[in-house]
């Protein structure tokens, strides 16, 4: 492939050798043509990000929440950077009075709020490892993470305290102190203390640090800042160790990118914090806002009220996962469909005009100012009126949704890609580049990237259309999996992190995610599915000879194609008075419902999660065979070929399953 517009080649491709697959050219962003951005002056740790911002912006609004007035949500009330700093100092001193020092593991378990950030900054100040836990985790996952990471102190949302209690007594070997984000009821206090764990309300704990002084430890770039546990797919969650250097270098790269596309952050920017802080995506975005002395307002925790929170906060930057943007898209199109013929016609004319001009290379703000003012302005106002940049991450965003929002939102709509192991931001599409629709753009200017061929899947990194496993090298990479050197060595080879995702370079230097090397994928709600494991479980149903389970990142549920056992299905039909040959039985809705019921029985028996249940099934009387290239000689399923062969069937199942 010829030189791509937004990439520069820094290393030549390498042919396959000694059993190792071929590797495509190593690229980096054109914005790093003269080298990666230097470290930001004065930043050696995540604590420095906050400390220096307080010095520069003491009176800026930092953290906001909606006050409640007469039982109703009112305006946002704010803590300044100096006010937050003073509380962080108290909480940090309180940690030290209880004996928690540099290197101790501190859990944070709860929804995004001011106390979450304050707890995190107290950890940063005193060199404690921050170990966030998703607020959606149940007691089993919480127990594993506390024990595996050896958390000794934890800050916990008040309503999550009972979940922590369920992990006793196994976690009390490590857990010694709990601090509630709010209050502690007498009954709960008694239960915790019965197990030898001290518990404090937020106010009680803060008072411990008053009139105390502790020197802050020296913190190095190489020190671990946080251990983030990724979703378990085929086993227990993995603790991803992220250093100060990872976060600082990621921020430097993002800053370089924003400068080059004229979208720098400023203290006037406002961010809505609703994506979980336990995820690296939101964590680094909020660190970036803190660095610039900008404002972070928290949602009320109810997705049904998020549009109202947006209207009150009026954010300038809106980060989202595809599920949220899908809802916005569905809401807009539904209202459009319910409007009159004249309204729809005007909208369609305006949309076609603006989109056509954007295709010709016009910036979104210049493509049709008249249409923006009289047609699309209502969409902009629905997002608060100030949004200039919408960033989607964590899973692929459907191309039609991305295109629609690029036109009607009156803002840049960008799609990014990264993993916890790469400190989130590895690729991001660029403003006003409509050719990047459906891609994750070029790399951020702080990493090197290459594709490695995957011969067994037919992906060749040296072909005219290069495809292969995405590999990343650079300072933002993680420091390894906590206590799992074996897993670290599987994915880190010669300084390259192997993502397991398959990418395809586009002619402009953007990257398109097209597959997953391992048979693990993410559904649209963010849940990972280990499909081979599910097929082994569903294969226990005696009425089915072979089953292929399918899902993707654009859908929220699974479907399947199965080869029924001929004798079993004909026996069931005979017992239920249903006539017809084997082929016609496979087409019969009653037969499909029966086998779907059998699959659901085994799913319940094996305690599968809701998203692992199959919602629709197609019965093929002809077994998967080598003649159609659907299986290997050893009867392993060829998934890309299965998808290609059954694509129309898959599409039909998803469409029918979504009908009311």
TrEMBL record:
One Pfam family it belongs to: AMP-binding
Keywords in alphabetical order: ATP-binding, Fatty acid metabolism, Ligase, Lipid metabolism, Nucleotide-binding
SUPFAM superfamilies in alphabetical order: Acetyl-CoA synthetase-like (SSF56801)
Pathway(s) annotated for this protein in UniProt: Lipid metabolism; fatty acid metabolism
Primary enzyme class: ligase
Ranges for domain AMP-dependent synthetase/ligase: 54-482
Catalysed conversion reaction: a long-chain fatty acid + ATP + CoA = a long-chain fatty acyl-CoA + AMP + diphosphate
EC number: 6.2.1.3
Function per UniProt: Catalyzes the conversion of long-chain fatty acids to their active form acyl-CoAs for both synthesis of cellular lipids, and degradation via beta-oxidation.
Family according to the record: Belongs to the ATP-dependent AMP-binding enzyme family.
PANTHER family on file: LONG CHAIN ACYL-COA SYNTHETASE 4, LONG-CHAIN-FATTY-ACID--COA LIGASE
Name of the protein: Long-chain-fatty-acid--CoA ligase
């Amino acid at each position: 492939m010829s030189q791509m517009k937004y990439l520069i080649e820094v290393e030549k491709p390498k042919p396959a050798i000694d059993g190792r697959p071929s590797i495509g050219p190593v690229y980096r962003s054109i914005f790093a043509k003269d080298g990666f951005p230097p470290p930001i002056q004065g930043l050696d740790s995540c604590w420095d990000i906050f400390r220096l911002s307080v010095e520069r912006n003491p009176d800026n609004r930092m953290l906001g929440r909606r006050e409640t007035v007469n039982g109703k949500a009112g305006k946002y009330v704010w803590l300044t950077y100096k006010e937050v700093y003073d509380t962080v100092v108290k909480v940090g001193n309180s940690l030290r009075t209880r004996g928690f020092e540099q290197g101790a593991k501190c859990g944070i378990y709860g929804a995004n709020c001011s106390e979450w950030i304050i707890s995190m900054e107290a950890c940063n100040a005193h060199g404690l490892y921050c170990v966030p836990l998703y607020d959606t985790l149940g007691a089993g996952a919480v127990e594993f993470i506390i024990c595996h990471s050896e958390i000794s102190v934890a800050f916990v949302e008040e309503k999550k305290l009972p979940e922590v209690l369920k992990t006793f007594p196994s976690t009390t070997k490590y857990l010694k102190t709990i601090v509630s984000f709010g209050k502690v009821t007498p009954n709960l206090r008694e239960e915790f203390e019965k197990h030898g764990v001290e518990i404090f309300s937020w106010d009680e704990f803060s008072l411990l640090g008053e009139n105390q002084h502790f020197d802050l430890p020296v913190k190095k770039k190489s020190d671990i800042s946080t251990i983030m546990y990724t979703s378990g797919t085929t086993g227990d969650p993995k603790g991803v160790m992220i250093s100060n250097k990872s976060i600082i270098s990621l921020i430097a790269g993002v800053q370089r990118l924003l400068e080059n596309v004229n979208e720098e952050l400023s203290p006037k920017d406002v961010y809505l914090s609703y994506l979980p802080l336990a995820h690296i995506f939101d964590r680094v975005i909020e660190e970036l806002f803190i660095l610039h002395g900008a404002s972070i307002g928290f949602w009320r925790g109810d997705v049904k009220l998020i549009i109202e929170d947006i209207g009150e906060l009026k954010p300038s930057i809106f980060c989202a996962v595809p599920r949220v943007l899908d809802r916005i898209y569905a809401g807009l199109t539904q209202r459009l469909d319910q409007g009159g013929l004249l309204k729809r016609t005007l909208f369609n004319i305006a949309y076609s005009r603006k989109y056509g001009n954007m295709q010709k290379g016009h910036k979104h703000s210049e493509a049709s100012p008249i249409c923006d003012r009289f047609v699309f302005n209502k969409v902009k106002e629905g997002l608060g009126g100030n949004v200039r940049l919408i960033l989607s991450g964590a899973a692929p965003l459907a191309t039609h949704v991305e295109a629609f929002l690029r036109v009607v939102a009156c803002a840049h709509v960008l799609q990014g890609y990264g993993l916890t192991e790469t400190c989130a931001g590895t690729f991001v599409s660029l403003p006003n580049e409509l050719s990047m629709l459906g891609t994750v753009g070029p790399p951020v200017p702080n990493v090197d990237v290459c594709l490695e061929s995957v011969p067994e899947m037919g992906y060749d990194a040296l072909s005219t259309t290069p495809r292969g496993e995405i590999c990343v090298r650079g300072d933002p990479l993680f420091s390894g999996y906590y206590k799992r050197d074996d897993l670290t060595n599987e994915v880190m080879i010669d300084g390259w992190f192997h993502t397991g995702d398959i990418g395809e370079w586009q002619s402009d230097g953007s990257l398109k995610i097209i597959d997953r090397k391992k048979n693990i994928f993410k559904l649209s709600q963010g849940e990972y599915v280990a499909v081979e494991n599910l097929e082994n479980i569903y294969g226990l149903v005696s009425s089915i000879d072979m089953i292929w389970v399918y899902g993707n990142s654009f859908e929220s549920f699974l479907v399947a194609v199965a080869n029924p056992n001929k004798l079993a299905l004909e026996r069931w039909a005979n017992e239920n008075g249903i006539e017809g040959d084997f082929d016609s039985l496979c087409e019969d809705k009653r037969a499909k419902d029966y086998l779907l019921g059998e699959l659901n029985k085994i799913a319940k028996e094996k305690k599968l999660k809701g998203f692992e249940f199959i919602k629709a099934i197609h019965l093929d009387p002809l077994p998967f065979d080598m003649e159609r290239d659907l299986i290997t000689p050893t009867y392993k399923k060829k998934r890309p070929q299965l998808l290609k062969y059954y694509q129309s069937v898959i599409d039909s199942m998803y469409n029918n399953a979504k009908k009311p």
